[in-house]
């Protein structure tokens, strides 16, 4: 609902215009009027202003000054200037003040209607296709890393989508993985934060860890880094794409360029690969550029990192070098010279490296823009297989531009998965070493024993997390591969795992019951409650069911107790809660009895809240009706009535119609006409006096409206009685 304010110092002209617009209004505008600029500002303080139609020449504050004041508070307000003077200077000044239109009073009502039409259309365009929509898209783009992270974590929690939905969501969220292919998982943790104490420092270092992992793994595989709590993370890895064109006649190279906009042509890639292999055959190591060719959109925003660096007075890059050539980590006092690092590396690996520093964008680089893998065996194997491609690959540009939808990928062979597993195992050691030397950060990693489909990724993820927290890798900087027969050792079948995962997901969703309780929606609450408290008893052993039931009881008890406390309902429902039954499982005859108790408690809360809402709603309607009856001769705008019941005027208008089936303004008009009928029958007041008594400023408008509703003028109605 849009708000229009009319301002003119000529009462008759203003009243006529107000009455005319009320009769014409196709937009259901909320129309207010003021006779001076000062009065307009006073009324504006209590309402949003969308359109201002104002006279220019007025005593005190003129229309141009009023427009300036309105723009300060409501910059999107459309301003229509109304004047009786066809003066070029006025028109020019009005347009400079941001006026949407300029209408002469002598030009008639039709041009005023057209000006209002134009203003309304401009507002709608801004809302749907203009600045607001653009800003929404920009905010969505900024939110993509978070949305991407949440979506992938949902998949890893077992809340997966179908293959068709994944095929749609992956390109939308710029997820650089194939939605129709399996995935290789690696779960890691930060063993010791050392001197990184504050959350901003940890976020910065975790970002640096992400950059390091992406630099090592990103060029030879499809790779995603997803942190899932304050110190643990997961890698999602797939072999490099070999895509099947959606168009049979389309060359392979063209399909690749669609899916990977930054990749070079196939011939260039082959040339680079051959050149790199020849270089590797002459040496015993593989050069690896750490100067990132692209920044994936799923990384944390540079603005955030820069802000954190500014607030904490630390270098925004993962590693900063001081003027003496020493390499220091963020907020870390310990340092070592580049020469010492060179000597250490030379003695340990018999290789030559250059001092490591960071560029201004936060990427880890060496002064010669090269870094050395530490796994000679892996490099030799890659060189012999001639699978190396040094060209940077990306699924989207660094600016976050939307990439083309991914074509269907050909299934990966067992040989490709085996090569990927070997590559990840060898490279993981390099990531650990780099984090230890450059970030002073020890990390532990556990690798999957095999790849898994997206449907079974949650089970794999759960297994890796359990083994990460087990005694196998209690020490720092451990690098292990999961036990291939872990589930068999624990006696967990796929169905058992699915049942437990569903149980845990339901526990985490108990908060979704709150809206139904708040709104008094008993039936939807029961349906959702029954869904969340179901067990797949056939998939779980008797002992497991017993302990899961205790866990569910504890969560239900905590949920309802927290709900009752936060909404101060203990006093109202205390007798129905039965505290002993509420807290102790032993006070229930069975698990089904406990579930029935909490279901009944939820129904009681929903019914109580529904009753309160109904009472509050009836009270609100009563207060509005009473105010209209008591203040009939005053201005009864939606804005004023909304203030009475502490709601916004658009919401009040919608709510009133929803509850009563009629418009609030129609109700006000009905009350005014009924009061006028009573006064016409019981008094000798003149028509214009009755019009003023029932809240109409204009007697002619009152007469027209009265005749429209009753099919007779006020005088004819009086004579009939």
Please, what is the average pLDDT?
74
Describe the oligomeric state of these chains in a short phrase: single chain
Residue share in β-strands: 5-15%
Helix content: 40-55%
What's the helix count? Answer: 29
What is the molecular shape? elongated
Unreliable stretches (pLDDT < 50, length at least 5) are 243-407, 487-491
Radius of gyration: 36 Å
Termini separation (Å)? 40 Å
* Major β-sheet annotation: 5 strands, parallel
Structural class: alpha/beta
Structure summary, number of beta strands: 17
Biggest sheet strand line-up: 2-1-3-4-5
Give the helices and strands, then pairings.
Elements: E1 3-7, H1 11-24, E2 30-34, H2 37-44, E3 51-55, H3 63-73, E4 78-83, H4 88-96, E5 99-104, H5 109-128, H6 131-156, H7 163-172, E6 184-190, H8 199-217, E7 221-227, E8 232-239, H9 252-259, H10 266-282, E9 287-288, H11 302-312, E10 319-321, E11 326-329, E12 335-337, H12 338-349, E13 356-358, E14 364-366, E15 371-372, H13 376-385, H14 414-438, E16 443-447, H15 457-468, E17 479-481, H16 486-490, H17 494-508, H18 514-518, H19 522-532, H20 542-566, H21 570-577, H22 579-583, H23 591-630, H24 638-645, H25 649-660, H26 664-682, H27 687-693, H28 699-710, H29 714-720
Parallel strand pairs: 1-2, 1-3, 3-4, 4-5, 16-17
Antiparallel strand pairs: 6-8, 6-16, 7-8, 9-15, 10-11, 11-12, 13-14
Helix pairs in contact: 2-3, 8-11, 8-14, 19-23, 20-23, 24-25, 26-29, 27-28
């Amino acid at each position: 609902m849009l708000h229009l304010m009319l301002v003119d110092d000529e009462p008759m002209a203003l009243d006529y215009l107000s009455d005319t617009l009320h009769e014409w209004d196709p937009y259901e505008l909320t129309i207010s009027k003021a006779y001076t600029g000062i009065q307009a500002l006073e009324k504006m303080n209590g309402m949003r202003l969308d359109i201002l139609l104002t006279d220019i020449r007025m005593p005190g504050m003129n229309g141009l000054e009023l427009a300036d004041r309105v723009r300060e508070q409501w910059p999107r307000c459309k301003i229509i200037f109304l004047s009786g003077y066809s003066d070029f200077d006025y028109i020019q000044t009005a347009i400079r003040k941001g006026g949407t239109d300029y209408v002469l009073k002598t030009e008639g009502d039709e041009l005023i209607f057209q000006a209002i039409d134009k203003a309304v259309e401009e507002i709608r365009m801004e809302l749907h296709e203009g600045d607001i929509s653009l800003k929404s898209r920009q905010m969505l783009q900024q939110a993509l890393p978070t949305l991407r992270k949440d979506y992938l974590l949902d998949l890893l929690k077992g809340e997966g989508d179908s293959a068709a939905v994944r095929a749609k969501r992956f390109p939308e969220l710029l997820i650089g993985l194939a939605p129709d292919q399996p995935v290789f998982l690696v779960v890691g943790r930060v063993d010791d934060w050392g001197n990184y104490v504050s959350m901003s420092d940890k976020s910065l270092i975790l970002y640096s860890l992400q950059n390091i992992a992406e630099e090592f793994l990103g060029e030879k595989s499809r790779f995603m880094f997803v942190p899932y709590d304050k110190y643990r993370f997961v890698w999602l890895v797939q072999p490099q794409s070999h895509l099947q064109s959606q168009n049979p006649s389309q060359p392979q190279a063209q399909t690749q360029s669609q899916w990977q906009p930054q990749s070079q042509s196939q011939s260039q890639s082959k040339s680079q690969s051959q050149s790199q292999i020849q270089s590797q055959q002459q040496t015993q190591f593989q050069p690896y550029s750490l100067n990132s060719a692209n920044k994936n959109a799923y990384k944390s925003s540079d603005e955030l990192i820069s802000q954190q660096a500014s607030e904490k007075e630390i270098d925004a890059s993962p590693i900063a070098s001081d003027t003496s050539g020493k390499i220091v980590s963020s907020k870390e006092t310990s340092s070592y010279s580049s020469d010492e690092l060179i000597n250490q590396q030379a003695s340990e690996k018999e290789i030559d490296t250059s001092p490591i520093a960071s560029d201004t964008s936060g990427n880890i680089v060496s002064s010669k823009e090269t870094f050395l893998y530490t796994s000679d065996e892996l490099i030799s194997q890659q060189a012999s297989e001639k699978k190396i491609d040094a060209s940077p690959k990306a699924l989207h540009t660094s600016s976050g531009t939307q990439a083309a939808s991914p074509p269907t990928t050909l299934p990966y062979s067992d040989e490709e998965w085996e090569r990927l597993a070997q590559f990840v195992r060898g490279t993981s050691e390099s990531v650990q070493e780099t984090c230890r030397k450059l970030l002073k950060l020890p990390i532990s990693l556990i690798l999957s024993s095999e790849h898994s489909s997206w449907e079974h990724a949650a089970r794999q993820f759960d297994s890796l997390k359990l083994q990460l927290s087990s005694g196998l890798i209690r020490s720092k900087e451990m690098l292990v591969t999961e036990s291939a027969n872990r589930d068999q050792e624990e006696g967990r079948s796929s169905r058992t795992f699915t049942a437990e995962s569903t149980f845990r997901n339901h526990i985490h969703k108990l908060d979704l019951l709150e809206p139904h309780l708040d709104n008094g929606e008993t039936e939807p609450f029961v349906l959702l409650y029954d869904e969340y408290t179901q067990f797949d008893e056939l998939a779980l052993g008797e002992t497991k069911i017993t302990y899961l039931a205790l866990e569910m009881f504890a969560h239900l008890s905590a949920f309802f107790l927290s709900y009752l406390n936060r909404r101060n309902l203990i006093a109202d429902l205390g007798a129905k809660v039965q505290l002993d039954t509420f807290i102790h499982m032993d006070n229930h005859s069975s698990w089904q009895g406990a579930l029935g108790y909490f279901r009944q408690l939820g129904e009681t809360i929903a019914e109580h809240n529904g009753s309160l809402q109904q009472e509050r709603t009836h009270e609100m309607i009563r207060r509005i009706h009473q105010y209209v009856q008591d203040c009939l001769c005053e201005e009864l705008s939606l804005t004023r009535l909304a203030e009475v019941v502490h709601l916004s005027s658009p919401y009040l208008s919608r709510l009133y119609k929803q509850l009563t089936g009629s418009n609030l303004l129609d109700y006000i008009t009905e009350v005014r006409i009924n009061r006028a009928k009573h006064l016409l029958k019981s008094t000798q007041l003149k028509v214009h006096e009755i019009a003023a008594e029932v809240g109409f400023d204009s007697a002619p408008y009152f007469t027209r409206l009265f005749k429209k509703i009753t099919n007779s003028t006020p005088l004819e109605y009086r004579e009939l009685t």
